[in-house]
Amino acid sequence: MSIMTITGKHKEENWGISSSAYQIEGGWNADGKGPSIWDTFTQTTDSIPDSANGNVACDSYNRLNEDLYMLRALRVKSYRFSLSWSRIFPDGTRKSLNQKGVDYYNRLIDGLIAYNIEPMVTLYHWDLPEALQKVSGWENAAMIDIFNDYCDFCFATFGDRVKFWITINQPQTIAWSGYGLGNMPPNVVDPGYRPYIVAHNLIKAHAKAYHTYDDKYRQVQGGLISIALNADWFEPADVNVVREVVTADRAMQFQLGWFAHPIFKNGDYPDALKWQVGNKSEIQGLPQSRLPSFTEEEKNFIKGTADVFCVNHYTTRVVSYLTAELQPHSYEWDRDLRETDEPDSPTTAIPNQKAVAWGLRRLLNWIKEEYGDPEIYITENGAAVEWDDFERVMFYKAYIDEALKAYDLDGVRLQGYTATAFMDSFEWLHGYKFLFGLHHVDFTNPDRPRTPKYGLSQSQTHPPSTHTHILFSNSIAVYFTPQTVCEQLNK
Ligand code: BGC
Hints:
Blueprint (H helix, E strand, L loop, with lengths): L13 E5 L2 H4 L12 H8 L19 H11 L3 E5 L2 H4 L10 H16 L3 E7 L5 H4 L9 H16 L5 E6 L1 H11 L12 H28 L2 E7 L2 E4 L5 H25 L4 H13 L12 H7 L6 E4 L3 E6 L9 H4 L2 E5 L15 H14 L5 E5 L8 H20 L5 E7 L18 E3 L8 E3 L13 H8 L8 H9 L1
Helix pairs in contact: 3-5, 7-9, 8-9, 14-15
The structure holds beta-D-glucopyranose.
GO molecular function: hydrolase activity, hydrolyzing O-glycosyl compounds
EC number: 3.2.1.21
Subunit structure: Homodimer.
């Protein structure tokens, strides 16, 4: 089915674009903001290309009107952004409240509402206040109440206008990259233990914030609340071999199910995790499983704490069975599998992130089956491409096409699609080397001018722009003919 035949039906769905505070705001110490673990890390590490940091980034803290203007021009229905916790509470707690930080977000939210753009607000997108890391960050169960109080403040302060809350962005990345691999702050290298402890606390912190919203705010404010989980699609190396299919399912459970199973199913970890980590721990001679367990009371508290399913998706990996080594103790080895690139798909600028659009359709169907047909929002999807924005246009066209097949043909209850990213941004460990923006930002210019990329270019003969067309009408622009495709490819 061509995408043209399925356009027009999705006009009222939530089409949007995303950013996050540390990636775009800059103003790292402006107007009383406290440092976050990303400020500390980027200002001291030499592991990021060009020693880049987010001190200024896109300078969105000082360029709010430009951002609002661009969003309006994009004609998106929603804008997903995150709040910088340490801009609001410089030391992470209410007693340090920084009114100027609150004012900034009030101006942003009011500006969006004035333009009829729905704010989708992530409460925590990795930039933990440094002061909280000093008391062990997410390893410390005290964070559950501290996070809850921060969320409570945000619901009370912004919830009259914000109707879509996301508690935590990609807890799996926080647990594994922050505490297992240790390549992201707080740079704890402990692959076998602390990722599980941190994930345990993150799940409980999410659940507590959900209940606070549910108990205190939902009735009056009428919004919804969820968590953004990252999920690759894991394709079995051979679909005809049962063991490979089971292995791919296990890969899904270790990445997505680690968080989604407790929250969307029964308050507990998937059997694959309990079984694998429990058995390995036993063979490793440990007195108990490295995977902590929830009490019955905790399971009841966690179960059902998301109103919709929010998923961030970038790529597909091929997996095959492997009897992994027992040492070192590691979440990665606990999975008993090997990952490789999908061989037949185009590359993007980032190694390991091939553009495998069909994987999105399979992922959406897997979520539908596994979690009882929830309403799904794709809260991030995008690609870094080397030079030519034409490839990005093709990426979006192909991925949105597959998402629409899942919606139209498979009956997946897809409610929204958010493209990443609004503009070129600080891309974490990649610095400014690999960029996802629909707008180019000149990071060498102190004014940080933003320029629409090819996909957003407007002209007399090509209105409206390609990306706007894809995001707004959910279709590739009609002028985007085979001839224009060939012209671009031959450039
Ligand atoms: C993060 C985004 C980031 C993207 C691309 C995702 O995992 O949530 O903040 O822009 O990766 O680097």
